[in-house]
Design goal:
CATH superfamily of the largest domain in chain B: NADH-ubiquinone oxidoreductase 51kDa subunit
Oligomer: heterotrimer
CATH topology of the largest domain in chain A: Glutaredoxin
Largest sheet of chain A: 4 strands, mixed
CATH class of the largest domain in chain A: Alpha Beta
Number of strands of chain A: 4
Structural class of chain B: alpha/beta
Strand content of chain A: 5-15%
Helix content of chain A: 40-55%
Order of helices and strands of chain A: HHHHEHHEEEH
Radius of gyration of chain A: 17 Å
Strand order of the largest sheet of chain B: 6-5-9-7-8
Number of helices of chain A: 7
Number of domains of chain A: 2
Largest interface: A-B, 35 and 52 residues
Distance between the termini of chain B: 56 Å
Order of helices and strands of chain B: HHHHEHHEHEHEHHEEHEEHEHHHHH
Strand content of chain B: 5-15%
CATH architecture of the largest domain in chain A: 3-Layer(aba) Sandwich
Structural class of chain A: alpha+beta
Strand order of the largest sheet of chain A: 2-1-3-4
Shape of chain A: elongated
Number of helices of chain B: 17
Distance between the termini of chain A: 29 Å
CATH class of the largest domain in chain B: Alpha Beta
Chain lengths: 156, 429, 574
């Protein structure tokens, strides 16, 4: 909990910064998600009902309440990507990773999600892995990228 | 064309105050500080600048109203949530020339007497948030933010970057304010409007990234000069985002008055793979979808309005004729279903049922009754939803139905002319 | 007052500034349907059922939260409005678990009425979003698949009660009202007050049904089944059978209970009197001996749990007295068996309560003596009405019945335990007599009566200023305790009831179908209790002859060994 305390302190132990605190906690969680006991701790420290905190973390798409893979692979499904072939990227990933959107691969490396636009429409179809955005993809190119992550060769 | 917004894109180190100043930055702020507040607002009014986030409210009027409010403290807030599919212009400003935004907000703060400002940037732009954060820190070091800005006693203004966490609805201004306060981004009842009662229940001046970024230029070179770059009804330039099935995708700064055809064909190089343009989805996901026949409309708030179209955020998604209008609609509706905040019935349940109804078309199980319900439900969402998200979510539906009704009817009969829809429900028909 | 002229459906009307369209329409007898709206409690303007047309304005606007302005022209039932309303109700109904015929709220459901009135005869959509499991972990039962997301319960829980165990979670069509991590309410800081049930427009919230256990006991020849009815039940039960709120139906209720097969019909009013003897004694002791003050009442189990969760520093201020319900059980299984010559193990005690938290209280570990639970089953006023209907008893036709001795006689003081300020007044009546050593005639302490959230008074008795305060609703209790914590107030004695208005507005009382009349209903029920009080032969607890007999023949002195063992308890910081 020392880590959580430190983050809370950095954000002034303020309710107003709940979202900022949670984003930071998720970043340092190592599970790409918000551990239950951390959330309870934050609620208690900020003197907020836990139900209210839960309301916030389930509202925003970026938060996970269950542990996720080391890399979250987001396939954009919004219109510009949709009309330039996002569907084939998703099919490839589902097949290669053997998971459906929302699921994590057996080895815990990838969590696949379909996301709304992340602003890479000029290089659609696009995929985001962690913070890194990959564009102008074809299933082949994406497969290569995913493999580089699996094998630790990526530079993202 | 002399560029207003994108002149420095890619030419300077984005977080370097020195390079920004060397490229003509901070002239606007200095000039503002030598002007009467009302004169500065007058300049913005003359500029004929309309809010670039999508609502197209005249910025000068907005600032004049906010200035007249006596209550305080006042807050400057920037909407950098840019969640609108097909929109990536703010990403360029924030990532390549954040100082024009920072300067714009500082000018606002000087006029309004605001001491604090927030730049709300979507969580998906984490790297860009760091650039903006660094730019703010550097501006503070150089005396362009913080206490006694540029040596002016009592001119204090601090800026903070606040991250979103993945919610399109936070682009709605009251939802954005809720989100800055650390809450779920569900819109507030209006009135009261945020200009009176916004962040922390205080008067709040909220504009889009692009809007703020026009301000330094307007003050520096004059509102009239800015206005003349555009048309009689729409001053200045606009960042347009070309995406979809078009050759040269990207952000283009264009003067108002250029036609959509010029943008798509002359700048954008036309449709990819030698296909034909089927329709354009303009202004973002909640904008209109219209065919080739309207492409000669000028990009100008007035002309577009006359044609029943809204410019929105400036997103131009080009869709070629290999795509099915109904399938495209399904994709659009899924977006709103995903992004509805859930607060009001028409949007929460309506977006869900629209997807369900449209799916009946793509599966080939729809009936005329479903078609009528689809249209009726869309109307109710438009008239009765709580906020702009629900009110405009049916726009692509209503426009696609208007221009491609035949395709919807074909789907009722189990046929998809593009072959995109599999018609599992009426196999063999 | 600034007046505003508006026209609604062609009729001109002048209304004060800040009036909503909904209120202005009501003045003209135009009923605009609403669902989420609860004035002062929940005004999100989110269900959109009340949308109307306003001339010159784009789109439709919610009448509930839109204020009138000069010259406004409103149309409340145009074809656009009717189509929107119909579409909206269809949307709500389509995602609602439509088990109407087997729903607790059948015929009292606001959604059912709205659909009926607005011609929802068939639904155009199939399928629903699954919103999670039925929560039967505690006395409050939640069915998220019946929830219409109006948010009333969320507002009541957080704003009125300051509890906040439920909130909206997720978004869009997946949005739901739930506890954190969708856990059962029983494991949460829920105080079981049941105010969420009362305000729910549909059957998404209800109480755990304990009638089956009561029926089973009644049918078991081995058991001696006795029943107690709380003060507030008699002035509300009638509403279930068509009587006006506040009508005293005690006589018919007694007959109905006898017909249902209870061996003895007793009264919680009796043990309320008993509580006063013990609590009055405790107050005087604490004042005289420098004990912890203020003394705070402990009759309301919702309040007790609230205090145990949120105000650990006040646990020692709580009266150690068990609540009247529990005191009744304790004597019904000790004193009564001795006198009636029955085996205490065979005595089955049923409580009829206006309260859902009483179900929780009865199951608390502390609430037993020598291995015997004080109370065996608790049913609410609503559940009793259900049993009466199931038994085919024509309530209105019943003759009035009489209570049984020796736990059935009560004073006016015991009666007013059912409303806010009543416990305080009852205690003052007894404390005043004890301190002055006289039987005083002036016994109405009007300063502590009323419906405001917090009331304070200083009462001079025998030359001593006793500072008292009354709080109703745990949200108001919070405010009061925060004031004390901050050192801004000091009292000798505080009465807290967990629900606003007191037990008469408890979570187990009949559902008020037109919830805009809630305040009037509360006032009528309270008046009903004061009317009984006025008509009572004895209006002071210590003058109740059965109480006097209980002490003389069994308990001895108030607070003494036997009384302490049976009638007092302790609390835990949670």
């Amino acid at each position: 909990m020392e880590k959580v305390k430190e983050v809370l302190k950095r954000f002034g132990n303020s309710k107003d910064n709940l979202i900022q605190v949670m984003l930071e906690l998720q970043n340092i969680s190592g599970t790409n998600s918000l551990p239950h006991e951390w959330v309870e701790f934050v609620a208690a420290e900020l003197d907020m009902p836990l139900s209210r905190v839960y309301s916030v973390i389930t509202f925003y798409a970026m938060f996970g309440t269950e542990p996720r893979g080391k890399y979250v692979v987001e396939v954009c499904k919004s219109a510009p990507c949709h009309v330039t072939g996002a569907g084939s990227l998703l099919s490839m990933l589902e097949k290669e990773l053997k998971v459906k959107p929302g699921q994590t691969t057996e080895d815990g490396v990838f969590t696949l999600i379909q996301s709304s636009c992340f602003g890479a429409c000029d290089i659609s179809p696009a995929v985001k892995i962690g913070e890194k955005v990959y564009g102008n993809l074809t299933p082949q190119k994406l497969n290569e990228i995913v493999n580089s992550y699996r094998e630790g060769r990526h530079n993202g | 064309m002399d560029k207003v917004l994108s002149a420095r894109f890619g030419k300077i180190k984005p977080d370097s105050v020195e390079e920004y100043i060397a490229a003509g930055g901070y002239e606007g702020l200095k000039k503002t500080m030598s002007m009467e507040h009302v004169d500065a607002i007058e300049e913005i009014k003359k500029a004929n600048l309309f809010g670039r986030g999508g609502a197209a409210y005249p910025t000068g009027i907005k600032w004049e109203q906010a200035y007249a409010i006596k209550k305080g403290p006042k807050y400057m807030v920037c909407n950098g949530d840019e969640g609108e599919p097909g929109t990536f212009k703010d990403r360029h400003i924030l990532g390549e020339d954040p100082f024009e935004l920072i300067e714009g907000m500082t000018i606002g703060a000087y006029i309004m007497g605001a001491k604090e400002g927030y730049i709300y940037i979507r969580g998906e732009y984490a790297a860009i948030q760091r650039i903006v954060g660094s730019a703010i820190a550097n501006a503070e070091k150089a005396g362009y933010l913080g206490k006694n800005i540029l040596g002016r006693e009592g001119f204090d203004f601090t800026l903070k970057v606040v991250s979103g966490a993945g919610a399109y609805v936070c682009g709605e201004n009251t939802a954005l304010v809720e989100s800055i306060e650390g809450k779920t981004g569900r819109p507030r009842q209006k009135p009261p409007y945020i200009k009176n009662c916004g962040l922390y229940q205080m008067p709040t001046i909220l504009n889009n990234v692009e809007t703020y970024s026009c301000i330094p230029w307007i003050i520096k070179d004059g509102g009239e000069t800015f206005s003349k770059k555009g048309t009689e009804f729409s001053g200045g330039t606009k960042l347009m985002c070309l995406s979809g099935n078009v050759q040269n995708r990207g952000v283009y700064e264009i003067p108002f008055g250029m036609t959509l055809r010029e943008l798509i064909y002359d700048l954008g190089g036309g449709v990819t793979n030698g296909r034909k343009l089927k329709f354009v989805h303009l202004g973002g996901q909640s904008g209109s979808c219209f065919p080739e026949s309207l492409l000669d409309t000028k990009i100008c708030y007035y002309d577009l309005k006359k044609a029943g179209i809204s410019l929105g955020s400036g997103a131009v998604v080009v869709v070629d004729d290999s795509h099915c209008a109904v399938d495209y609609l399904k994709n659009s509706m899924e977006f709103f279903e995903e992004e509805s905040c859930g607060k009001c019935t028409p949007c929460r349940e309506g977006t869900y049922r629209l997807v369900q109804l449209v799916e009946k078309f793509t599966e080939g199980t729809a009936t005329m009754e479903d078609f009528n319900k689809l249209k009726s439900l869309a109307q109710t969402m438009k008239t009765s939803s709580f906020c702009g998200l629900g009110q405009s979510a049916p726009v692509p539906l209503l426009t696609l139905v208007k221009y491609f009704e035949e395709e919807f009817l074909e789907h009722i009969n189990g046929k998809c002319r593009t072959g995109v829809c599999h018609m599992t429900g009426k196999a063999g028909k | 007052m600034e007046m505003i002229n508006v026209t609604i459906d062609g009729i001109a009307v002048e209304v004060p500034k800040d009036t909503t369209i909904l209120e202005a329409a009501k003045k003209l007898n135009i009923n605009i349907p609403t669902l989420c709206f609860m004035k002062g409690i929940n005004e999100p303007g989110s269900c959109r059922v009340c949308v109307v047309e306003v001339e010159g304005w784009r789109g439709l606007h919610p009448a509930c939260v839109t204020k009138v302005s000069e010259g406004l022209v409103v149309k409340t039932a145009t074809s656009t409005v009717r189509e929107a309303r119909k579409n909206i109700l269809e949307l709500i109904m389509s995602n609602h678990n439509r088990e109407c015929l087997s729903c607790d709220r059948n015929l009292k459901c606001e959604l059912q009425t709205l659909c009926n009135e607005n011609g929802i005869d068939r639904l155009p959509y199939g399928g629903k979003v699954d919103k999670g499991c039925l929560d039967t972990s505690g006395p409050i039962v939640r069915d998220p698949n019946k929830c219409v997301l109006c948010g009333r319960c969320v507002s009541v829980c957080s704003k009125m009660q300051d509890v906040g165990v439920i909130d909206f979670a997720y978004r869009g069509a997946h949005m739901t009202v739930t506890t954190a991590y969708e856990e059962g309410l029983a494991g949460q800081e829920c105080i079981n007050c049941g105010q969420c049930i009362k305000i729910c427009p549909v059957g998404a919230l209800s109480e755990r049904d304990d009638t089956a256990r009561v029926w089973k006991a009644l049918e078991n020849p081995e058991l001696h089944v006795v029943v107690q009815t709380a003060p507030a039940v008699r002035v509300a039960l009638g509403e279930e059978f068509g009587y006006a709120p506040g009508t005293n139906v005690e006589g018919k209720m007694v007959t109905a209970l006898r017909r249902l097969g209870f061996d003895k019909i007793f009264d919680t009013n009796f043990s309320a009197d008993l509580t006063i003897i013990e609590e009055g004694n405790e107050l005087l002791n604490r004042i005289k001996n420098g004990g912890k003050l203020p003394l705070i009442t402990s009759c309301s189990p919702g309040w007790i749990k609230f205090c145990e969760h949120n105000y650990h520093d006040f646990l020692e201020n709580l009266s150690t007295c068990k609540s009247p319900q529990q005191m009744f059980g304790a004597v019904a299984k000790s004193y009564y068996p001795v006198k009636a010559d029955v085996d205490p193990k065979k005595v089955f005690v049923v409580s009829v309560m206006p309260c859902t938290a009483k179900k929780y209280e009865a199951d608390r570990e502390e609430m037993q003596v020598d291995g015997l639970k004080d109370i065996d089953a608790v049913i609410t006023t609503r559940e009793l009405a259900k049993m009466i209907r199931q038994a085919g008893i024509r309530f209105a036709e019943l003759e009035d019945g009489e209570r049984d001795s020796i736990l059935g006689t009560y004073s006016g003081a015991g009666t007013i335990f059912g409303n806010t300020g009543g416990v305080m007044e009852a205690a003052l009546r007894t404390v005043a007599d004890k301190l002055t050593g006289k039987s005083l005639d002036s016994i109405e302490y009007t300063a502590v009566r009323g419906l405001s959230g917090i009331r304070e008074a200083t009462v001079n008795i025998a030359g001593m200023d006793i500072k008292v305060a009354v709080a109703n609703g745990t949200g108001n209790a919070s405010k009061l305790l925060d004031k004390i914590r901050a050192g801004e107030a000091g009292y000798h004695f505080i009465e807290v009831m967990g629900c606003e208005g007191g037990c008469i507005n408890g979570g187990g009382q009949p559902i008020i179908k037109d919830k805009s009349t809630t305040e009037e209903v509360k006032a009528a029920r309270i008046k009903g209790l004061y009317d009984i009080d006025k008509a009572c032969v004895t209006r002071k607890s210590h003058e109740n002859p059965e109480i006097q007999k209980l002490y003389a023949e069994y308990l001895g002195e108030a607070g003494a060994h036997k009384a302490h063992k049976l009638l007092h308890t302790h609390y835990v910081a949670r």
